[in-house]
Amino acid sequence: MRLLQELFTTDVGLFSAVGIAFMLGMGVFFYRLFTQDDAPRSPENPGKNG
To answer: pTM for the full model?
Structure first.
């Protein structure tokens, strides 16, 4: 409990919390960026949407 209190009440803890949140957010961003299907559709292979 003391660690959580220090994380959200001290300057260093707040900077750490912001850094952790930023890294997790960038991880989600890059995961979605690199796993989305961005190949152009061709008439021979229309893909998922038919």
So the answer is: 0.68
Whether the pLDDT of residue 45 is over 70: the answer is no
Distance CA 13, CA 5 (A): 9
Residue ranges of alpha helices (H) inside the chain are 2-9, 11-35
Report how far residue 32's alpha carbon sits from residue 24's, in angstroms, rounded to the nearest whole number.
12
Ramachandran region of residue 4, left (φ > 0), alpha (ψ -120 to 50) or beta? alpha
The CA distance from 23 to 21, in Å, is: 6
